[in-house]
Design goal:
heterotrimer; A: ABC transporter involved in vitamin B12 uptake, BtuC; globular; disordered C terminus; C: 259 residues; Rossmann fold; 2 domains; four-stranded antiparallel β-sheet; 40% helix; 24% strand
């Protein structure tokens, strides 16, 4: 039972990170109908930027209490610029090109970012400084530490904030209008390019946060961390119904739970044949299962009929 | 439709040139470069296989190397001592099937994986295929790396070695053979074998391109809705293209395993998939000559980088700042972006094939214009 | 319902909703063999939606239709093409990077059979079939009057030529019903006149024609019968002259133009 509870906690924490990244995929997909393959790399760049600025700030003697939010803000800012540039350079010129073209540039951007990161930060794992006292709390036999609590709460806060922006503000209304019908939105005086740029920037800022969370949680950052994380977050977005914000959040949390419960019990389920080193495989099978059983996802509408 | 004289002469000249290519390379650059040529041939085969999927049917397969891996492991498992060591009770001496049986088997197994992956995905929008294949490319490596315990099927990260070399007509390609008084080293023999297979893949691609099936693929690539309105069963035809691509990948993998004598998961990384995709995009999607050009260029690129970039950096900065491997990937990534933005038809646009149809000079001119804009 | 026994297409109580929006509401109509049937109505009346339902692109939310004696509720486009419905698109959808000839040859796909082995072996049967496809495609290009640019890429054809090519491609599938979505849109007067002649010829050859048109004049001079859609509902059906005088139709058109 303790194991079960422990895996639930781990799953929710990991899942809230997936949800943040999934939001980036789903927002861009909702508006442009494009899978932004490079999104996972934005997460990685966010983590790396935060790490570098944090190291520098601490080196200059800034107190950790100030250095941490400062470096996170820097990472967010950097990723917003990155997200804006990606859209501007690699996607916008191809908005009316055959569908294959932006997919290919997207994978190209992803490869470039990954290898640039490798050149800048090297191939090795970087340890993320532990700035928050890691007091473990005991809940019914399961352990949750401060970082996990902060991650979960912060993720929920950002998701709530996003929902407010999308549902309650002028900008959010413009975003929804563009997602619904670009042409009509344009006729109504919405500056489509601006809305799309802002969407990429918001998604990238969330990705930066998620990157910091992942590396703080595991205490590690690595140039390759964005790739698998991106795949999983995309799976989460599809699971919830791609294009649907609530779906991305639900899908993220669910995928986190599936993964951690699966990894916790796979040994028992398969009689010891598969171990927890197959944890990364779950997301993929979830993806295939969703595509077979309910391609529109849990909260999505039918996709097929948008001719 | 009869091949005219000029064409026959051209083919004959090409055959002779290719026959001497390994000898000339050997004499001028050394035996290592013949080996590089062999690998270039394998890459061309892979790129042509992927071209059916991406270039003809317009489906983006980002995990193509996974099918290559499936084929390679098929051959490695059946024709190495590994099974005998891992399961002495089941296979006391291993399996050791002849190459000509394992090759189609590898193709079929890879094709089977293609169907398993494509069937659920291909009824949906094309983007899903890209991400599912991307995931598959990673998953296959996780399995290859971890299926050494509790049952040692793949030998994990160490990979499988001592794979039987390929023999053709009871002639092992693994040692120097003498025919008509000429000594053919092993790498030369493999070159001819791969050349033959490449020729076969080209033949198949060309026949498919100019057939009812090929036209249906291109219709799907151009406009899937219009294609289905014309009575084309888009799902089945996409599945066919995807599975055929996978089969070519699997067959190339078996050749790779036999040639190398050793396989391990690290040969099948995402970067390899990207490299093959790059070959197709760079040369010109859907255009056989372009894809071959892309394959040659990119297969030789790492060697060029190694021989130029490293000494150059040493001379300029006194040490290697950027290793050629990451520079290569950086170039691939940038090439994908730049090609799509500025030259989506590739270096050798396939519009040139219009000339074969004859007569329509205006159209040919127009398309050259089109390709440059 | 009169004359339903000779109906080629019989649509009954078709409804289609997008989200909360009702694009089609209880639309029934029947098209007789050999006639030219017009579908008119103001912008957004649901004409194209109805079109997409009976060509299998959309699944109706309610109702179904019979084509050539077979019942369909949710057709797949390729099955309906096989059954004998061929269509063109309002905003031309040709295979842009293929030649005009290849476009029409693709139309033959559904009536030919060569598979992968045929392609690879290129046996006598396949060669014969391939030859027949080319011959028929060239015939059709001549039929619609664009035999000259056969080797031109579809995207390089003029607007009128592209419209004609779409018709040739549709005819290549040997349809019983040729469904045209605003074929005269963007054409000048002489091109429209040529189109009219072409459609009459096609009808004479025994193909039934379903025509969505904005240009009421074209419809009036050409169609045997017309139906009028407004806000997703059928408000009139009958001979062009009768429909023209129908008060509901006049109101719909005047109202539609008014706001």
């Amino acid at each position: 039972m303790e194991i079960f509870l422990q895996q639930i906690i781990n799953g929710l924490v990991q899942g809230s990170v997936y949800a943040l990244v999934a939001l980036g995929y789903t927002m861009v997909y909702g508006i442009l109908g494009l899978i932004n393959f490079a999104h996972g790399e934005v997460v990685m760049i966010g983590a790396m930027l935060a790490l570098s600025s944090l190291t520098a700030l601490l080196g200059w003697g800034v107190t950790p209490l100030l250095a941490l939010p400062l470096s996170i803000s820097l990472a967010m800012l950097g990723c917003m610029v990155l997200g804006y540039s990606i859209e501007r350079i690699a996607y916008r010129p191809l908005r009316h090109a055959p569908r294959l073209a932006p997919l290919i540039t997207a994978i190209g951007v992803s490869i470039v970012l990954q290898n640039l990161a490798m050149m800048i930060w090297g191939r090795s794992y970087h340890s993320f400084p532990q700035l928050i006292a890691n007091n473990p709390h005991n809940i019914g036999g399961a352990i949750i530490n401060n970082i996990q609590i902060i991650i979960f709460v912060l993720a929920l806060a950002f998701m709530a904030g996003l929902m407010v922006v999308v549902n309650r503000t002028r900008l959010g209304r413009a975003m929804r209008a563009v997602a619904e019908n670009q042409h009509a939105a344009q006729l109504m005086g919405v500056d489509i390019n601006r809305v799309i740029s802002i969407t990429f920037m918001i998604g990238s800022a969330l990705a930066a946060i998620a990157g910091v969370m992942v590396s703080a949680n595991y205490g590690l950052a690595h140039y390759y961390m964005g790739f698998i994380l991106g795949l999983k977050a995309f799976t989460a977005a599809v699971l919830g119904g791609i294009g649907n914000l609530r779906g991305a959040m639900l899908g993220g949390l669910l995928l986190g739970l599936i993964e951690s419960l699966g990894a916790g019990y796979i040994g028992d389920l398969t009689g010891g044949f598969f171990g927890s080193n197959y944890q990364d495989v779950f997301a993929f099978f979830v993806l295939i299962a969703v595509l077979v059983l309910r391609p529109s996802g849990l909260l999505g509408e039918r996709l097929a009929e948008r001719a | 439709m009869k091949p005219d004289r000029k064409f026959v002469m051209l083919i004959a000249a090409l055959v002779i040139a290719l026959f001497f290519l390994p000898f000339v390379t050997d004499a001028l650059l050394g035996r290592g470069w013949v080996r590089i040529l062999d690998f270039a041939m394998l890459y061309i085969m892979l790129a042509l296989g992927l071209n059916i999927v991406v270039g003809y049917a317009g489906l983006l397969d980002l995990g193509y190397i996974a099918f290559f891996a499936v084929g390679a492991y098929c051959y490695a498992l059946t024709d190495s001592p590994h099974l005998a060591q891992a399961f002495p009770m089941l296979f006391p001496v291993g399996v050791h099937l002849p190459f000509w049986i394992v090759l189609p088997m590898a193709a079929l197994v890879a094709g089977g994986f293609g169907v398993l992956l494509g069937a659920p995905t291909l009824r949906l929008r094309g983007d899903y295929l890209a991400i599912v294949t991307l995931g598959f490319g990673e998953i296959i490596r996780i399995f290859l790396n971890n299926l050494n315990a509790p049952v040692n099927l793949t030998n994990g990260p160490q990979g499988i070695s001592f794979i039987d070399p390929i023999s053709v007509l009871c002639v092992s390609l693994n040692k120097t053979q003498t025919f008509f008084g000429i000594a053919f080293p092993s790498v030369h023999l493999y070159f001819y074998l791969f050349l033959a297979f490449t020729a076969l893949v080209i033949f198949v691609s060309q026949r498919l391109e100019k057939s009812r099936i090929g036209r249906a693929w291109m219709a799907i690539r151009e406009d899937e809705v219009a294609a289905s309105a014309m009575g084309i069963n888009t799902r089945n035809l996409k599945l066919l293209a995807f599975a055929m691509g996978a089969m070519f990948g699997g067959a190339s993998g078996a050749l790779f395993a036999g040639f190398q004598g050793f396989v391990s998961p690290e040969s099948f990384s995402l970067m390899e998939s990207i490299m093959v995709l790059c070959m197709v995009v760079l040369g010109g999607m859907g255009n056989i000559a372009g894809v071959i050009l892309g394959g040659v260029l990119l297969a030789l690129l790492p060697e060029v980088l190694r021989n130029i970039v490293v000494p150059l950096q040493q001379a300029l900065f006194g040490r290697t700042l950027v290793d050629p491997e990451s520079l290569r990937m950086l170039l691939f990534g940038s090439a994908l972006i730049v090609m799509m933005l500025y030259r989506p038809a590739g270096l050798l646009p396939s519009r040139l094939r219009r000339r074969e149809f004859g007569g329509d000079d205006a159209a040919a001119e127009e398309s050259v214009y089109d390709a440059t804009h | 319902m009169p004359h339903t026994e000779d109906a080629l297409l019989l649509a009954s109580h078709i409804g289609k909703q997008f989200g909360g929006l009702s694009a089609l509401d209880d639309v029934s109509l029947h098209i007789r063999r050999g006639e030219i049937y017009g579908l008119i109505g103001p912008n957004g009346a649901g004409k194209t939606t109805l079109f997409n339902v009976i060509t299998g692109l959309y699944q109706p939310s309610a109702g179904g239709f019979q084509f050539n004696g077979m019942h369909y509720e949710s057709g797949k486009p390729h099955l309906l093409a096989q059954a004998g419905i061929a269509r063109t698109f309002q905003n031309i959808r040709l295979f842009a990077n293929l030649t005009a000839l290849e476009n029409v040859m693709i139309g033959r796909h559904v009536r030919t059979r060569a598979g992968v082995f045929g392609a690879l072996l290129r046996d006598r049967g396949t060669r014969k079939e391939e030859h027949a496809i080319t011959v028929r495609a060239r015939e059709l290009l001549r039929y619609v009057g664009i035999e000259k640019p056969a080797q031109t890429l579809a995207k390089h054809l003029s607007y009128g030529e592209q419209r004609r090519l779409e018709i040739a491609r549709a005819l290549a599938t040997e349809p019983l019903l040729l469904a045209l979505d605003e074929p005269a849109a963007g054409m000048n007067a002489s091109e429209t006149e040529n189109l009219k002649t072409l459609l009459k010829t096609i009808r004479t050859s025994g193909v039934t024609v379903l025509l969505i048109e904005h240009d009421v004049k074209l419809i009036m001079g050409l169609c045997d019968r017309v139906a009028v859609l407004d806000y997703g509902k059928k408000i009139a059906e009958g001979a062009p002259e009768e429909v023209r005088k129908d008060p509901a139709v006049i109101a719909a058109y005047l109202g539609g133009g008014g706001d």
